[in-house]
Amino acid sequence: MATAPQPVQLTDLVGSLKRHWAVVVAAAVIGLVLGVLASLAIPSSYQATTTVAVEPMNADPLTASVEASQSVSMATESGIATSSQVAAAASKAMRPDHRITAEEIVDSTTVTSPEDSLILRIGFTGGSAEEAKAGADAVAEAYLMTRRSDASAQIDRLVKAAQDQIAAVQASAADPANQGPIVQRSLQIQADALGSKLAELANFDLTPGQVVGAAQTPSSPSTPGALPLGLAGLFLGLLVGVPVALLRKEEDSEIGGVEGLQSIGDQIVLDGTKDTNRADTWDIAAFMLKIPTEIGVDGPFTIMVDAEEEPGRGITPGQELADALLRRGRTARFVDAGMINEGKISRGWPTEKKRISWAGEIIIIDTTHLTSDANKVALATRSDSVLLARSTADDSAALRRLVGLLKSKSVDVALTALFPPRSEAMANHR
Question: Cα(140)–Cα(301) distance, rounded to whole angstroms?
Fold first, then answer.
């Protein structure tokens, strides 16, 4: 009967990380180095921001009654601030201290506007702190200059149109066909209205806005430095290294020998891999176990024996130990825990009543056929001694797991008997 696979426990994960700590450390160091190298490869950049208050300008006096906040579209103003026209003017203004093209200025400029406000925040990213400050201020001034120029051009167009209309009215007034008093009065009213419009256009305020917050020279780059990028690389390295370590295939899939067992933490190992007769190894194991000479009548002396199942073997390790004790003149009762309901074991078997019935005896409880490691550990905590029987072909990860669970419950393994694989044992026997 094959043992069912056990769910992964925290001890398994911790043990795997301890065994493959070099993988985790290597991944972390690689991540750290890559982060530092990235900080050196990424050019430093600085960011400065200039704040502009936008003034509403309505160059048409006939619509001057429109609410000021409704006469300005901040989305449109943001587009103007990031336009190639403004960028070209800013590029020209920054020379000769900073030679930067209009295209580079467009790419380096960002404009935001708080909701329900007439404020533009013009951000500029430069290769140096001085360039960032100069760029933000230059774009802001170029935006105001462009806005003023556009408004002035619109005023000039309206003035010329009004003047042309006045000239037309004066020509009509001089026409003999329009000398009647009513026509003359109408033409005079039109001329007066156009004159008033010219006067209003002459007094129109062309202030496009003002800089209310000049850019400050940034004291540190906006790009992350070696420390944050290094730490980020270290963290990413750990994120990669830990799963790799946990999923890494165990190189020592088989125990391989006494060294393999001692690496797991067993202190007392009986090496029977060279014995031609398996019974000889069990005889020595029976001798090494510390079994009281006299067992009191208040209870039994219990020995838990656990081994990996070996297909084709007719006798279990527990029975082999019982036979070895018999050869030494001690009798032992063999109990196959695999024949006991596992739910019963989890609820506290062997019960006190059962232990009383075994009083004065050596009881060998064989857990080889148990499918639950938790039940094996539970029986180990209720036993006076624990013996593990393993072969060099046994899965070291499974053994490491079981030993870790036993240690978590402060259960010491009295002895581990190491046997050769069955095929090798049969060859030795021949």
Answer: 92
